[in-house]
Amino acid sequence: MPSLPLPPETVTPPETVTSPVPAPIPPVPRVPVSSPRPLAHPAARPPVEALYRKAHDLHFHGGDPATALAAWDAYLAAEPAGRFSVEARYNRALLLVRLGRYTDARVALMAFSRREVEPAGYRQAEAEQLVERLAHYE
User: Are 123 and 111 in contact (CB under 8 A)?
Assistant: First the structure.
């Protein structure tokens, strides 16, 4: 059988779709990776917290009011408006009473009795009673 000539193929070129060329992506800056900070040992405390803990322990478990007073002074010097500063100031005033420094104690306690300490009213009743008693010693 004779072969039939094939019709010439008409190949249509594929449609070229022109899409917008995306803008080049800027390179990501390399940030040095630092090693993670080691977890703090449970016994390791921030210095201010250690000052508070020392003063608290000396105040409630120590036998020397002068040493405890110095510890409260150190804590308050490091963090005068810190989380525990109000309690530290009150405890400091109590130590002034124990040391016989009645005028200094009265001045410290007056701030509490006059509601000048935030939160207002904190230990106000106790401070008022102590101020009344101290008037007999000055």
Answer: no
* CA dist., res. 88 & res. 85, Å (int): 5
Distance, in Å, from the CA atom of 12 to the CA atom of 35, rounded to the nearest integer, reads: 61
pLDDT, one tens digit per residue, over 56-107 is: 999 999 889 999 999 999 999 999 999 899 999 999 999 999 999 999 999 9
pLDDT tens digits, one per residue of 9-30: 554 555 554 545 544 554 544 5
Which of 73, 75, 91 shows the shortest CA–CA distance to 83?
A: 75
Task: Report CA-CA distances (Å) from 131 to 55, 73, 107, 108.
Answer: 24, 21, 9, 10
Instruction: Note the pLDDT of residue 36.
Output: 47
Locus of tokens 């004779």: 2
Q: Output b/e per residue, 18-33; b: 16+ Cβ within 10 A.
A: eeeeeeeeeeeeeeee
Tokens linked to 11: 């190949």
3-state helix, strand, coil in the chain (%, to 5): 50, 0, 50
